[in-house]
Write a structure and sequence with these properties.
Layout lengths: L3 E6 L4 E6 L9 E5 L8 E3 L4 E7 L2 E10 L5 E11 L14 E3 L2 E6 L12 E6 L6 E4 L6 E6 L13 E9 L2 E15 L6 E3 L9 E6 L5 E2 L5 E2 L2 E7 L7 E5 L20 E6 L6 E7 L8
Length: 293
């Protein structure tokens, strides 16, 4: 919180002793608001010297208000922490870290995490471009829940996986306890998309189709591969009503899974030989486990 902290790393109540360090040294009044509830504030024209106050285990904000002889007041806020250095971390309920975009993972906090002192903070980040998340001890949920909406291809320094990172801190361990869960491989759930150079033409003219689908996937060994797309033209017969001028349509070979397909070309040029209305279709897929579009 950017505060100067008075801390004692203990799980028992602690007596703190406070002494004035104000400048100038002579002022009209001194007030300490302890910040721990109903405790009576220190309020006196005499600067605190050896003033004591007992704090129970917890995290508090103390205010020191000094009124100058010129009538101006200055307030400084301090943190007061009584507790232990943090423990804990996160685990995963997902034995399979190989999923598709849109998959939601649960990362439960370890049991020891819930015994940490008030004043402990949890900073969680995922290297998928999502915003970091911060919890306090009071707001800590049973688990960190995260949905992966992008492919991990290119992430992890070229290792093609995402990593969930956590840092647990409190005033007794400012550097914090780090932890990570890596190796999360996310393949793109396929999205079919293509552009067509024009939609109206004359007999014997051709049209160019460009595949812009999202279908990249991460293999089991961690490498990234492009998916496969297959073109089709209906109705009519190839060579009679229409003809592929350049590129190839591809073929699913009767296999419902993309791994068994023969990929079509990214760019396809089709010439139409017979007047009529035709529909152009594109089927695409990547990882067998992520479906087709």
């Amino acid at each position: 919180q950017g505060l100067t902290y008075f801390k004692v790393c203990s799980l028992s109540p602690v007596v703190f002793t406070f002494n004035d360090a104000s400048q100038p040294t002579v002022n009209a009044n001194y007030e300490i608001i302890w910040g721990d509830g109903p405790s009576v504030p220190y309020n006196s024209p005499i600067a605190p010297a050896g003033v004591t106050h007992t704090y129970n285990v917890g995290n508090y904000i103390m205010q020191y208000i000094v009124l100058g002889t010129n009538g101006c007041a200055d307030t400084t806020r301090y943190g007061v922490f009584v507790g232990s250095a943090p423990n804990g971390g996160i685990g995963t309920e997902n034995p399979d870290l190989y999923k598709c975009t849109g998959a939601t993972f649960s990362f439960p906090f370890l049991p020891s995490t819930f015994s940490n002192s008030i004043g402990t903070n949890y900073y969680i980040s995922v290297d998928d471009g999502s915003a970091p998340v911060t919890y306090t001890q009071a707001t800590l949920p049973p688990a960190f829940i995260h949905t992966f909406n992008t492919s991990s291809c290119g992430a992890g320094g070229g290792n093609n996986y995402f990593t969930v990172s956590i840092l647990i801190t409190n005033p007794c361990n400012i550097a914090g306890i780090p932890g990570t869960i890596g190796g999360i491989k996310i393949s793109q759930t396929p999205v079919a998309n293509f552009t067509v150079s024009r939609d109206t033409l004359c007999v014997n003219q051709s049209v160019t189709l460009t595949d812009n689908s999202s279908n990249q996937y991460v293999t089991e060994n961690g490498s990234c591969s492009p998916g496969k797309s297959i073109w089709s033209v209906t109705p009519g017969v190839a060579g009679v009503d229409w003809n592929v001028v350049s590129g190839s349509l591809g073929n699913d070979n009767g296999d419902p899974l993309p791994s068994g397909w023969t990929a079509g070309s990214t760019t396809l040029q089709v010439q139409f030989l017979t007047p009529g209305s035709y529909a152009l279709h594109l089927k695409t897929g990547g990882s067998d486990s992520c479906g087709i579009a």
